[in-house]
Amino acid sequence: MNASEVTAESLALIGINGPDIFEVYMWGFGSVIVFWSIGFFVACVVRGIRKA
Length: 52
Hints:
Layout: H1 8-13, H2 18-51
């Protein structure tokens, strides 16, 4: 087997499976959405303060 080949079986040998990849992906996506929401909220508050 080439060192450059990555298969589901080779990932399973080191303990990486589909649900683990999905969980990490969703944590990353969720953190991006959370920090975007915080930034959007802060921007709205700053815009409201500047208009007042």
